[in-house]
Amino acid sequence: MQITILGATGRVGREVMLRALADGHSVHALVRSIEKLELSHPQLAAIVGDAREEAMLKQAVAGSSVVISALGTDGGDALSSCFPGLLAVMEQQAIHRLVTVGTAGILESRTEPGLLRYQSSESKRRSTRAAEEHHAVLRLLEASAEPLNWTLVCPTYLPEGPYTGIYRSEQNYLPEGGLQITVGDTADFTYKEAISGAFTRCRVGLAE
């Protein structure tokens, strides 16, 4: 299978890429800097460009069955501004599987129904900018039409750490008492979910 990964030089994206290559998949990685990729592999094709440019997205996703986005926020609107183009390109090329990594802030609040966690007292963060960017992506995904099969992976606090396999997932909510999840475990879930499609057109909260 060919998989396109956006954000392959980031913490989660790199681990997802390594898992895909280890399983024998071909990977297209759209990156801004080839130097930051720091990897050469016969099944890896690096496309250097900006994910906000549709021409680069077309090249990156061509021939893929699955698109995984591990793009982060940059303090601006780079994340949300790339998604309209990405969804359009995927529709044009009849690619129906999309997994993107967000934040636990855009999960449903348990204590204040009708609000997302970042809008409620559950959030301890002073700035909501990153959550607002991911919320914009969520709105685009919710407004998309089938057959797009999307999953928005929402890890809680994400420290560096290896795969442990000891973590929980819950549709639309953060697992109760969840305080953190390692980068390795987040990448593990993201990669496996991209292949399995167990969660359809929804958010998934992740925590240990």
From TrEMBL:
Superkingdom assignment:
Bacteria
Q: Which SUPFAM superfamilies match?
A: NAD(P)-binding Rossmann-fold domains
Q: Which residues form the NAD(P)-binding domain?
A: 7-191
The transmembrane residues are none
Q: What is this protein called?
A: NAD(P)-binding domain-containing protein
Enumerate the Pfam families for this protein: NAD_binding_10
What terms describe the molecular function in GO for this protein? oxidoreductase activity, acting on the CH-NH group of donors, NAD or NADP as acceptor
